[in-house]
Amino acid sequence: MDKIELSTLIQAPIDVCFDLSRSIDLHQISVEQTKEKAVGGVTSGLIGLNQKVLWQATHLGFRQTLETQITKYTRPFFFSDEMVKGTFKAMIHDHFFYEMNGDTMMVDHFYFESPMGLLGELADFVFLKRYLTRLLIQRNETIKKYAESDEWMQFIPIFASNLQSVAENSRSKVSSLPV
Question: pTM of the entire structure?
Answer without folding.
Answer: 0.84
